[in-house]
Design a protein that fits this description.
The complex is a heterotrimer of chains A (488), B (212) and C (281).
Chain A: H1 14-22, H2 25-47, H3 52-68, H4 70-83, E1 87-91, H5 94-108, E2 117-121, H6 125-129, H7 132-138, E3 141-145, H8 148-155, H9 172-183, H10 192-209, E4 212-215, E5 219-221, E6 226-231, H11 235-241, E7 245-251, E8 255-256, H12 262-273, E9 281-286, E10 296-302, H13 313-316, H14 326-330, H15 332-337, H16 348-358, H17 376-380, H18 387-402, H19 406-409, H20 412-424, H21 427-440, E11 445-446, E12 449-450, H22 458-461, H23 474-484
Parallel strand pairs in A: 1-10, 2-3, 2-4, 4-7, 5-8, 7-10
Antiparallel strand pairs in A: 5-6, 6-9, 11-12
Helix pairs in contact in A: 3-12, 9-10, 16-18
Chain B: H1 3-15, H2 41-54, E1 58-62, H3 68-78, E2 83-87, E3 100-104, H4 109-113, E4 117-121, E5 124-126, E6 131-135, E7 151-157, E8 161-162, H5 165-172, E9 180-183, E10 188-189, E11 197-198, E12 205-211
Parallel strand pairs in B: 1-12, 2-3, 4-7, 5-8, 7-12
Antiparallel strand pairs in B: 5-6, 6-9, 10-11
Chain C: E1 2-3, H1 9-14, E2 18-19, E3 26-28, E4 34-37, H2 41-46, H3 48-60, E5 64-66, H4 76-81, H5 84-98, E6 103-106, H6 109-125, H7 129-138, E7 142-144, H8 145-152, E8 165-168, H9 172-177, H10 183-189, E9 195-197, H11 212-215, H12 217-234, E10 238-241, H13 244-256, E11 262-265, H14 266-270
Parallel strand pairs in C: 4-5, 4-6, 6-7, 8-9, 8-10, 10-11
Antiparallel strand pairs in C: 1-3, 2-3
Helix pairs in contact in C: 6-7, 12-13
The chains are: A alpha/beta (488), B alpha/beta (212), C alpha/beta (281).
């Protein structure tokens, strides 16, 4: 069983990665600008929709219903897709999915080829989740990313930092340098128009000659067997139409019951993701259509840990996600660090709940704490995932698991929390601890402020001042007042 | 156990069922969002044109089918184009004379790549988002012909324009298993410093001939 | 009912006589309530003056304030950090102490959010229908301080005098979990002499987040930097909020920078008759 979420298993804990990310001012400026721009556009597009809340409610309800009957709808999708000429494969984990893809590509690859087989790819986070490119390359297959941002990331040997705008951490000069080197265009300027034009020409040639494409999908529709890809650039249409063979990787949570349900998501997804009333292109296709597009169509349905989230109803909410990234753009934590600090292909608020859960909390355990629980994510989520509640739920799981180990039991935080709980359960202990703290703080008072507090509290005084505990608590005041008979 | 069996077993185990039965659950989902409006045809068309213009789409209005050919000629002359690609069986009376016309009879991708201008009809349109629905086949052409050329001329009838998306989707539901493309303005990217650039792949210009 | 000219209203209010704006000049004494105060553990220990202000103000408005001394903590810190089992006894303690209270006032939006968002869930997870029933019966009687004034006591002008420029930071719990948006602003606008200045990007989190402030101190500090910049931009003398936790974070950063901006809980502003010079904060 090899469930993987990109490179999350090897990523440093969030506080450490964040510390490093915070030093990168260019990244932070890019992230702030990008998230503010999309967030403001989204707000405009949402304001003009008097039925926005009704759309959110319906979007959540459809997903909840689907997940509660997931086996039924998956089977319905498979039957209808295959009836129309598609072939569906099931993959339990990352390795199995990659293995199926590689076998299919080898089956269809031109037999006389002396150069490695190339496949063109449409943006799909799911393929990053299973590290498909890495597996393809190891099998002698060359994947070519065709989304502009993914191309920038790939040619720059980098990692994506945002679900919808993966190269937002790069500015135009950095992109120009990447393109100059990889496209052999030393005269290329850093004007966005020129960069885009260079990408258009570079890719056009590849679209026309490559026989095999790999895509993801935004929705898999059960009652018709239709697959839907939502995009802006047109590279999706190219990859879905021109090649002879199409392999589409679909997480099992992407299925929706009915074609008509698109009327909800095609309104909420574009507005949430890019702040547009509608994205430029949506492609819908069912199986194989003779004379139009790929004549060999394969779907790989992917589990890779998703079924584990089904049993608990709160965890199941995580699977409602339609990958719009509105939560990333709203998150004040993401705003400071960008996506790399989360160490997972799924970053920001959704990443903080999805990454650890797919990996059974064996990795990415610091991510549920990478949040102040401010709720900005829940406010913007088009399918009403209560991310703060899921975060608290996951924190509970992390703590309970840690408390089973000796290391966890004896950890500084657990000891402090147990002590605090004991104190709060008893009035006299509570008052005693207040008095004790007043005395204990004397060692740390300098010029009327507390400095250099020990242990975890030092995390406060390192960057912030803290007034000493007042000499009288509220209850001291209350008691002395009662003695004076001043109340009533 | 096959992968399918194992995954289904995991799902059913997690849901505590032998096999899920949605019964009427889907039909009972509450939908209080807007599914239709009372906009007049006039208002709908005005809004549609407004959105199209916002996308830099050229809009030419003609009062009947007889005006289509002239509108096509007007658009192509303005763009200095002299050759036109059309789906096989496209009515000659809608095509201008004096230009080279190629009908798509299973042309190769290379041949299509050389075409600059293509003309099709459409299935439906949405005013509020400026969206055009193509249900591919027949006079709407197979997918590739509206993808490779740089200028797409699309004939949209006023009666095909709906006010909101749910209405248009309902209209195309009977064709749900055909390839469908929705087009809302030219392609775009904001991947470079959030500056929106138009025309990454796909036609960089769109002309709508709006027929009464 | 007394007929009192409008220019005497503020003084009248200070004496506990409430103007009835809907009928013009007629004033009436409010029905005195018995209000049980849950001051919140961190207010008790670190910001006693907030509890004092709440008590004095409610008494001035003609009500009786009670303070069950056995109270400690609502359990939020433990619960939100993942120590769910440890929070249960604290939930029981709160319910037991306040179950007979007619009205409970809590000058801490985050504590009220904890109760409204999680107490029922906790009772259900404990499989304790009796606790669940008690929680459900008690919660409708629990109010955050500004909610108590505007929704329960239906008062917006408490006769305060605070001649300073003030900017309001809405704590995330009050804004998003309790949906308190306009009420604190309405209360502040009615304060004599107060110049209310809008805080730019006010809905952005200050970075406190409970244990987040130390577990993720770098990010907490980075978030605080943005909040500080917005506060400074207003040129206000005072930042106020419904939560001393946010104010502690904001104060901690501003004071470290050497700023003179003061942080004052809304209760202390509303209880003020002499402004800052009168010995508040």
């Amino acid at each position: 069983m090899s469930i993987r979420v990109g490179k999350a298993a090897k990523a440093p804990a969030f506080p450490i990665a964040a510390h490093k990310a915070l030093e990168n001012n260019q990244l932070r400026a890019n992230v702030r600008r990008a998230t503010t721009t999309i967030r403001n556009k989204r707000a405009l597009r949402v304001e003009e929709m008097p039925d926005w809340e009704a759309l959110r409610s319906a979007g959540a309800a459809i997903k909840q219903h689907t997940l509660a009957h997931l086996d039924h709808y998956l089977e319905e999708f498979v039957a209808n897709c295959e009836r129309a000429g598609g072939k569906v494969h099931w993959a339990r984990d990352a390795d199995e999915a990659n293995s199926i893809a590689i076998n299919l590509i080898r089956t269809y690859a031109p037999k006389d080829s002396t150069t490695p087989v190339e496949v063109i790819k449409v943006k799909t986070m799911t393929s990053d989740e299973i590290q498909m490119n890495h597996a393809l390359e190891a099998a002698g297959i060359t994947p070519i990313e065709t989304d502009l941002a993914d191309m920038i990331v790939q040619l720059g040997h980098d990692e994506p930092s945002h679900i919808v705008v993966p190269a937002l951490h790069k500015n135009r000069t950095e992109i120009r340098d990447i393109f100059r080197a990889s496209m052999n265009k030393p005269e290329l300027t850093d004007q966005p128009e020129d960069l885009t034009s260079a990408a258009r020409k570079y890719l056009r040639e590849r679209f026309l000659r490559t026989k095999i494409a790999v895509s993801g999908a935004n929705f898999a529709i059960a009652d018709t067997g239709t697959v839907c890809v939502v995009e802006s650039e047109g590279n999706g249409r190219m990859c879905l139409t021109l090649p002879e063979v199409l392999i589409t990787l679909v997480g099992i949570e992407k299925v929706i019951p009915s074609f008509g349900d698109l009327e909800v998501y095609l309104q909420t997804l574009p507005r949430s993701a890019t702040g547009e009333r509608m994205n430029p292109y949506n492609s819908l296709w069912t199986g194989v259509t003779p004379g139009d597009g790929p004549q060999h169509f394969h779907v790989i349905l992917l589990d890779n840990g998703r079924t584990k989230l089904l049993e608990d109803e709160m965890e199941r909410e995580t699977l409602q996600c339609i990958r719009c990234a509105a939560c990333l753009n709203a998150c004040p934590v993401y705003r400071e660090t960008g996506g790399h600090a989360y160490g997972s292909i799924y970053s920001g608020p959704i990443g903080a709940i999805l990454s650890p859960q797919l990996q059974s909390l064996e990795h990415s355990r610091s991510l549920p704490y990478a949040s102040t629980l401010c709720g900005a994510c829940y406010e913007v989520c088009p399918v009403k995932i209560n991310i703060p509640e899921v975060l608290i739920h996951l924190r509970g799981r992390v703590v309970r698991e840690d408390q089973k180990t000796l290391k966890g039991k004896l950890g500084v935080e657990n000891i402090a929390m147990q002590a605090a709980a004991t104190i709060f359960r008893n009035e006299r202990r509570y008052e005693a601890s207040q008095r004790l703290a007043r005395i204990g703080q004397l060692a740390f008072e300098r010029k009327g402020m507390l400095t250099n507090l020990p242990g975890m509290a030092g995390g406060w005084t390192a960057t912030r001042d803290l007034k000493p505990i007042p000499s009288h608590s509220f209850r001291d005041w209350w008691k002395s007042r009662k003695k004076k008979g001043a109340s009533n | 156990m096959t992968a399918r069996e194992e995954i289904l077993a995991r799902i059913q185990g997690a849901l505590h069922v032998r096999a899920s039965d949605p019964a009427n659950g889907h039909g009972q989902i509450e939908r209080t969002y807007t599914r239709t409006t009372s906009m007049t045809e006039h208002q709908t068309i005005d809004l549609f044109i407004d959105r199209l213009v916002d996308y830099d789409t050229e809009v030419i209005q003609v009062s009947n089918d007889a005006g289509i050919a002239a509108a096509v000629a007007q658009s192509m002359t303005k763009a200095q184009e002299t050759a036109l690609l059309a789906p096989a069986g496209f009515p000659q009376e809608w095509l201008p004379s004096g230009i080279a016309i190629t009908f798509d009879e299973s042309l190769s991708h290379e041949a299509l790549d050389a075409e600059k201008t293509v003309i099709t009809t459409c299935e439906a349109a949405v005013a509020s988002t400026g969206t055009i629905f193509l249900v591919h086949g027949g006079l709407q052409g197979r997918r590739v012909i509206t993808l490779l050329p740089d200028h797409h001329i699309c004939i949209v009838r006023r009666s095909q324009v709906f006010s909101v998306l749910p209405e248009a989707l309902t209209a195309v539901t009977s064709s749900a298993t055909k390839p469908i493309t929705t087009i809302s303005g030219p392609s775009a990217t904001s991947d470079i410093e959030m500056v929106r650039i138009r025309g990454v792949h796909g036609p960089r210009s769109l002309t709508v001939i709006l027929v009464s | 009912m007394w007929l009192i000219p409008s220019e005497c209203e503020p003084r009248a209010v200070r004496f506990g006589i409430q103007p009835d704006r809907s009928s013009g000049y007629f004033l009436r004494r409010p029905t005195p309530l018995r209000i049980a105060l849950f001051v919140a553990c961190y207010n008790d220990t670190l910001f006693p003056q907030t509890g004092v202000a709440v008590t004095e103000l409610l008494e001035r408005l003609g009500h009786t304030v009670e303070f069950p001394l056995a109270q400690t903590c609502c359990g939020q810190m433990h619960y939100n950090t993942g120590y769910h089992g440890e929070a249960v006894p604290l939930v029981r303690r709160f319910v037991e102490l306040f179950r007979d209270a007619e009205t409970v006032c809590v000058p801490s939006a985050s504590c009220v959010a904890m109760m409204r968002e999680h107490y029922e869930l906790i009772a259900r997870n404990e499989d304790d229908p009796a606790l669940l029933a008690e929680v459900q019966a008690l919660l409708p009687r629990v109010f955050e301080f500004s909610e108590l004034l505007t929704k329960k006591l239906k008062v917006t002008d408490v006769g305060a005098h605070f001649p300073h420029s003030v900017t309001y930071h809405p704590s995330c719990h009050s804004l998003r979990m309790l949906n308190i948006r306009e009420e604190p602003l309405t209360l502040l606008r009615a304060v004599d002499g107060l110049n209310l200045i809008e805080l730019p990007n006010r809905e952005q989190c200050c970075g406190f987040g409970g244990t987040f402030a130390v577990k993720n101190m770098d990010v907490s500090t980075a978030m605080l930097a943005e909040k500080k910049a917005c506060v400074i931009e207003t040129k206000a003398e005072v930042v106020t909020s419904l939560d001393n936790s946010c104010l502690m974070q904001i104060y901690g950063g501003l004071h470290r920078d050497g700023s003179n901006v003061r942080t004052v809980h809304i209760a202390e502003i509303l209880n003020s008759v002499k402004g800052l010079a009168g010995g508040n904060a």
